[in-house]
Specification:
The protein is an alpha+beta fold and about 350 residues long. It is built from nine helices and 14 strands. The structure holds 7-O-phosphono-alpha-L-galacto-hept-2-ulopyranose (VTB). 7-O-phosphono-alpha-L-galacto-hept-2-ulopyranose binds near residues 208, 209, 210 and 231.
Length: about 350
């Protein structure tokens, strides 16, 4: 990524034989166990000023939890290339055997937030049928997202922020001053932030965690109307997976700083470097998305510990049905010793 670090299968009785060629819907609930495990482990590092160990704990727990999931999974959005990530690297096979699935993970979305004890950190996983996810290189992606129920094309990545905000306000029958844009708090967004404020809209600046920023734009109670700006491309694919389930509009475009990055993207299957990706181009087919809160945010409560256990709060959703489930887990570590972070 521009400023960022350019960041078994097992044999045996396969369930794929007996399954119709659609995703087993029980997989959605199995996935929650995976994000719960990552969130529980990461939350042990909450507020300890050590983002690397927080991330490492989430990755390890998530990797282990995948061994219990009845899929033959391939990581396509992960922790990096095989030589730079010990676990959940791109191409790694995970799962206990079953239907072939592609997997997108962000075991700890918001490593710095977790280290500082800030809000909105979560563990995230998405599953798609083989070939469902854009193989996004670890670059920045310019993103725009709004919620469901609006005219198609009400906002567009190629329009100026002023025009998008005006069109969105009109479609939502709101004053532009009632429109709130969620933007990552970064120096590179100075001009964008200025333009949004000059247009009369208000801004919720977030320190990290643009997967939840994009999802927030689709949730009326979050107070966010639109997500704008650049963040990680892998995070863009995860957000697109979420929007396939909850509805809403999103576009993303990769941002390149040199030819080497373009070559890398081409090798990963991106034909046109300037392409404006739609949600379906980032996450197609039947998609499942699950997230568990590490620290409390707009959508999810963080992990809360009690003597001998912990509560977790997760969301899990599937594109096919559009059902969004919130799952409150009460974990008893005296019995669930394998989960003890
Ligand atoms: C965002 C944010 C992530 O990376 O995608 C961001 O959502 C983009 O990179 O939580 P910069 O930090 O360089 O702006 C994260 O912060 C994770 O690395």
């Amino acid at each position: 990524m521009a400023e960022k670090s350019a960041k078994s299968q097992k044999s045996g009785a396969s369930r794929s034989d007996s399954l119709p060629p659609i995703m087993d819907r029980n997989l959605a609930l199995e996935l929650v166990r995976v994000t719960e495990a990552a969130a529980l482990s990461a939350s042990r590092w909450m507020g300890r000023g050590d983002k690397n160990n927080a991330d490492g704990a989430a990755v390890e727990a998530m990797r282990k939890a995948f061994d219990q999931v009845a899929i033959s999974g391939t990581v396509v959005i992960g922790e990096g290339e095989m030589d730079e990530a010990p676990m959940l690297y791109i191409g790694e096979k995970v799962g206990a055997g079953g239907p072939a699935m592609d997997i997108a993970v962000d075991p700890l979305e918001g490593t710095s937030i977790t280290a500082k004890g800030g809000p909105n950190a979560m563990a995230v996983v998405a599953l798609a049928e083989r070939g469902g996810f854009l193989h996004a290189p670890d670059l920045y992606m310019d993103k725009i997202a709004v919620g469901g129920g609006l005219p198609e094309g009400v906002v567009d990545l190629d329009e100026k922020p002023e025009a998008n905000l005006r069109n969105l306000a009109r479609a939502k029958k709101k004053d532009i001053g009632d429109i709130v844009a969620c933007i990552l708090d970064r120096d590179r967004h100075k001009a964008l932030i200025g333009a949004v404020r000059a247009a009369g809209a208000r801004i919720m600046l977030i320190p990290d965690g643009d997967v939840s920023g994009v999802i927030a734009a689709t949730q009326p109670e979050s107070g966010v109307d639109i997500y704008l700006g650049s963040g990680g491309a892998p995070e863009g694919v995860l957000a697109a997976a979420a929007l396939r389930c909850v509805g809403g509009q999103m576009q993303g475009r990769l941002m390149f700083e040199n030819d080497e990055q373009k070559t890398r993207a081409r090798e990963m299957g991106v034909k046109d470097p300037n392409h404006k990706f739609s949600i379906l181009e980032m996450a197609k087919g039947d998609v499942v998305f699950a997230a568990t809160g590490v620290t409390t945010g707009a959508m999810l409560k963080g992990v809360r510990w009690f003597s001998g256990g912990a509560y977790t709060h997760s969301m899990v959703m599937r594109s096919k049905s559009g059902t969004v489930r919130y799952v409150e887990g009460h974990h008893n570590f005296a019995r669930k010793t394998w989960l003890t972070p």
